[in-house]
UniProtKB/TrEMBL annotation:
Family in the record: In the N-terminal section; belongs to the NnrE/AIBP family. Belongs to the NnrD/CARKD family.
Catalyzed reaction equations: (6R)-NADPHX = (6S)-NADPHX; (6S)-NADPHX + ADP = AMP + phosphate + NADPH + H(+); (6S)-NADHX + ADP = AMP + phosphate + NADH + H(+); (6R)-NADHX = (6S)-NADHX
Domain YjeF N-terminal: 10-208
UniProt entry keywords in alphabetical sequence: ATP-binding, Isomerase, Lyase, Metal-binding, Multifunctional enzyme, NAD, NADP, Nucleotide-binding, Potassium
Job description of the protein: Bifunctional enzyme that catalyzes the epimerization of the S- and R-forms of NAD(P)HX and the dehydration of the S-form of NAD(P)HX at the expense of ADP, which is converted to AMP. This allows the repair of both epimers of NAD(P)HX, a damaged form of NAD(P)H that is a result of enzymatic or heat-dependent hydration.
Cofactor: K(+); Mg(2+)
Name the record gives this protein: Bifunctional NAD(P)H-hydrate repair enzyme
EC numbers: 4.2.1.136, 5.1.99.6
The species this protein was found in: Sphingomonas yabuuchiae
InterPro entries according to UniProt: Carbohydrate_kinase_pred_CS (IPR017953), CARKD (IPR000631), Nnr (IPR030677), Ribokinase-like (IPR029056), YjeF_N_dom (IPR004443), YjeF_N_dom_sf (IPR036652)
Cofactor binding annotation: Binds 1 potassium ion per subunit.
Record's subunit section: Homotetramer.
Positions with a binding annotation for (6S)-NADPHX: 61-65, 122-128, 151, 241, 297, 345, 408
Length: 460
């Protein structure tokens, strides 16, 4: 059971191609199914800790994996029963059911067991499961002590995070061979419990992967405040938001943070480590500025537009967030040649790029290509994409992030990473990782100010 940080994420088409490529020489579909079945059995035996196990098997290869796993669990002397939604249909499932060879209960009459293993449908799901299957899943899941899904919970589509019908909540999902988009995309991701990968010897390559920490810049003996990274935050009508961004940039590790606000607006808030200057048209004429953040608390008036225009033509690496995402036009983004990162939440994304009609991964990739920017499409399933098609899917950090100002903190954290010299995609990933870790560490009912402060602690 492998933790999924930093692993490739494969769509249905990519997974199919990877499986085909793996089937050479002695390796057949049956080999892969045997590997999957025995890896599932090993994981289930460990998690069940001696409790009785009920495996629900479907008619296809997901069911085949279930039969092989049940046979292996039985050989280990564990108490295991099998129930089926249908007779086995695929060649793999027929062979696997024969290997099980034991009793098969009817789904609607199966008695619950403390450990419930769902091997009804996996990546082959093409429509909503029947009511009979949905009801049986709900009944058996409800009565179980531990719920384990094989590959994907039955009822979850593979690529778009959609639940086709009623899907119970699982405690553990065992992804076979590769992580798939629905393991991370909402609402499906919330139903999975812990997602763990089982290796079945299929080589996986993809331009998408899951979030991990590997790019946090560290100072060394030669570092000074400017080499650590100078971030300029352009403020507007609501300076509380931009103050949060400035604080977060410092706490994430920037060496120097400049808060640029209209005369009389800036200068009151802590901490003193933020350098406050009045915003002027030439405020960005400072070569040492490594990243400019514009948008948090900017407002949408004429001043805000002028500041955005100046930031776009200033040519410094840029993070465009909040109000600036409502003011910017996709056409004018191209004018800005330096690296840029857009950080829209769902509403801002729709405003700029239109409604997501397919799935969040594809839509974010398209947006990155269209804008020439790295796009951090925020939410409980944040997706980061670069114009070249690389993408990073992020597991849910904490639902307590749904409070005002946490996005301002994220913009500051990403600003610090960009100013430290990371490439835009790496800067976005590092900022999102830090932000998520800080949220997890804080637990419940934190506020955005706590989140900014906690960034220092999670740098550790
Ligand atoms: N292809 C391979 O090489 C491997 C596949 N493996 C397993 O195979 C699974 C995919 O197997 P399948 O492609 O057979 O698909 P599934 O076992 O997920 O689904 C079985 C079949 O049921 C039918 N079906 C789809 N939705 C339905 C619905 N709502 N109601 C009734 N019938 C429905 C479809 O014809 C589908 O092919 C993976 O999730 C994984 O568990 C593993 O054994 C490892 C190797
Ligand atoms: N339910 C949730 N679960 C996990 N993360 C969330 C959730 N809701 C919001 N977030 C995260 O919290 C932050 C909110 O950003 P945003 O919507 O811009 O807020 P604000 O503009 O108030 O700062 C983003 O990083 C987003 O990914
Ligand atoms: K399943």
């Amino acid at each position: 059971m492998i933790p999924i940080d930093g692993l490739p994420v494969l769509t249905a088409a990519e997974m199919h191609a990877a499986e085909q490529a793996a089937m050479v020489g002695e390796v057949t579909e049956a080999t892969l199914m045997d590997r999957a079945g025995s890896a599932i059995a090993q994981a289930v035996a460990r998690l069940a800790a001696g409790r009785e196990i009920l495996v629900l098997c479907g008619p296809g290869n997901n069911g085949g994996d279930g039969y092989i796993a049940a046979a292996a669990l039985k050989r280990q002397g564990l108490a295991v029963r099998v129930a089926a939604s249908d007779a086995p249909r695929s060649t793999g499932a027929c062979r696997a059911a024969a290997i099980w060879g034991g009793a098969v209960e009817a789904l609607d009459r199966a008695e619950p067991a403390p450990v419930f293993v769902d091997a009804i449908f996996g990546t082959g799901l093409s429509r909503s499961p029947s009511d009979e299957i949905q009801n049986a899943l709900a009944r058996l899941a409800e009565a179980a002590w531990l719920r384990i899904a094989v590959d994907l919970p039955t009822g979850v589509a593979m690529d778009n995070g959609k639940a086709l019908g009623k899907v119970p909540r699982f405690d553990v999902t065992l992804a076979l061979g590769a992580v798939k988009p629905s393991h991370l995309l909402q609402p499906a991701a919330s139903l999975m419990g812990q997602v763990r990968l089982l290796d079945i010897g299929v080589a996986t390559r993809s331009h998408a992967r899951t979030l991990t920490r590997w790019h946090l810049p560290e100072p060394d003996a030669n570092s000074h405040k400017y080499s650590r990274g100078m971030v300029a935050v352009i403020a507007g009508s609501m300076s509380g938001a931009s103050e949060l961004t400035a604080l977060a940039a410092l706490r994430a590790g920037a060496g120097y943070v400049l808060h640029l606000a209209s005369a009389g607006v800036s200068g009151s808030a802590a901490p003193h480590a933020v350098v406050r200057r009045d915003y002027t048209a030439d405020a960005l004429d400072e070569d040492r500025i490594g990243a400019v953040v514009i948008g948090p608390g900017l407002g949408r008036d004429a001043d805000a537009s002028a500041r955005l225009e100046a930031a776009l033509s200033g040519g410094r690496p840029l993070i465009i967030d909040g109000d600036a995402l409502r003011l910017v036009e996709l056409g004018t983004l191209a004018k800005h040649k330096a690296p840029k990162i857009l950080t829209p939440h769902g509403g801002e994304f729709t405003h700029l790029f239109g409604e997501v009609t397919d799935d969040k991964l594809s839509a974010t990739r398209r947006a990155a290509r269209q804008s020439g920017a790295v796009v951090v499409h925020k939410g409980a399933d944040t997706v980061i994409a670069a114009p070249d098609g690389q993408a990073i899917l992020c597991p849910e950090a904490s639902p307590w992030l749904s409070t005002a100002g946490t996005g301002d903190v994220l913009a500051g954290a990403i600003g610090a990473m960009l100013a430290a010299g990371l490439e835009p995609l790496a800067a976005a990933e590092a900022g999102v990782w830090l932000h998520a870790q800080a949220a997890r560490r804080l637990g419940k009912a934190f506020i955005a100010d706590d989140l900014a402060d906690a960034l220092s602690a999670v740098r550790g």
